[in-house]
Amino acid sequence: MYLRNISNFTNVSDYLPILNGALITDILVILLALSGYLKSLTLKTWYKSFGLSAVLADVFVIVIVVIVTRWLYSMFFKSYSLLSFIILAVSIQCAHDLLFGKLLDYIPTEKSQIFNTFKQYADEHSFRILFADAQMVVSTIIIGSLMASFDFNINIITFIIMLYHVPYLIYSF
Hints:
By secondary structure, this protein is an all-alpha fold. Helices cover 77% and strands 0% of the residues.
């Protein structure tokens, strides 16, 4: 068991471990919110109002960040370094968050309940969102790198077990 290199864009066998990393990370966030450790009214509203859609949005935005990182990594670095990969991914995540935050300024309040929730979350947490999202990206990469050291069977079983728990967690808010 070790942390594998997940930076190779052409290695499609890394996508399930990365997906597992993001799903496990989001489940940890949900558990922290349910336990009261994360004190965010908007985060609770996010999961209560949007349920599985909230989980899908959380998980897949992180997966997309890791995919973009994998695509760009070899353009910036010649050899693999977990730290370099994480720094690039967090930079991409921060750029995404800042651009997304600017986009929210241009969306009228009455247009979208989901965007209204994002605006409330931004009002509640401001720039702390960058730190929280960076932690989720780092967690996803580390867990994904660990999961990549396991075979396909273990990854499928992990995915199924984690996904099975999602409805029980999101409907506990």
